[in-house]
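Structural prep section.
Before we set up the soaks we want a predicted structure of the protein with adenosine monophosphate in place, mainly to decide which crystallisation condition to try first. Input record follows.
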Amino acid sequence: MKLLVVGSVAYDAIETPFGKTDKILGGAGTYISLAASYAGAQPQVVSVVGGDFEKENITLLENHNIDVKGIQIKKEEKTFFWSGKYHNDMNSRDTLVTELNSLGTFNPIVPDAYKNTEYLILGNLSPVVQRQVIEQMTTRPRLIIMDTMNFWMDIMLDELKNTIAMVDVISVNDEEARQLSGEYSLIKAAKAIRKMGPNIVIIKKGEHGALLFDETQVFYAPALPLEEVFDPTGAGDTFAGGFAGYLAKSGDISFANMKNAVIFGSALASFCVEKFGTERLQNLTKEEIYDRVLRFVDLVNFDYKVH
Ligand code: AMP
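Run finished without errors. Recording the tokens verbatim:
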């Protein structure tokens, strides 16, 4: 039921063809926790922010039943800041600024009360930090999920591989899966990544959905075709948070239930992109989430008749 989340809690400034924001709440840990909270899981976040982090943002997390005891506040430093600008097609973006600030020297400290948590999700952070968290757990979690990105493949591949070997589920996008495995075919890529350790590989394909692989099975979840994508920031993290939260809440980590978890994560990601930053994830109702899950079911449901 409880889900330990490790990830950045940040300020982001985002520019899309629809407008731009000043510093707003962001960070992988934030998106993951908010998404997981809608599954009814109880996220416990381990992260770090600076003295500039507004109390109202902490309150926002707490109002979603997110335990923030593990968020260190370094008063003398600033919160991690990231800024990105999307191109017209919204599928690609340029990172304009990455100021690590308090995240640069982040030494994750897992509070004692969290050390037996059964479900752990490692948001995109240095693989060394990710491993330090796993090593602090007194009992090996039932399920460890990790997200990562090409940045870590470029600069610390060996460390990354060490961490990958310790997890059960890895979530990467298609480009990253190809880079990590050296295989162009995503089927071959998933096989190669499974050999590195994780039993389950998730390959995200942005507006084209996501693939879930175990040793013998593949499941495909589309992304919901939306009339307007306003801001894709955090969609991958939201997907992962929804996936992890669903599994933690249900306690069922079978492949069949992971399919539901992928759909739940995809539904939440479809909300995430409708507004800037975390705005759309701040006030979702159970009904609207369920309605959206049903739209996914309709999207892929058909009766095939043999004539
Ligand atoms: P995504 O759109 O899924 O790539 O996630 C975007 C979020 O990741 C933003 O809210 C950023 O604050 C956060 N982010 C970007 N770069 C990093 C990084 N190097 N380490 C940790 N978090 C990051």
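Observations: The chain has a mean pLDDT of 96.
Flagged for discussion at group meeting.
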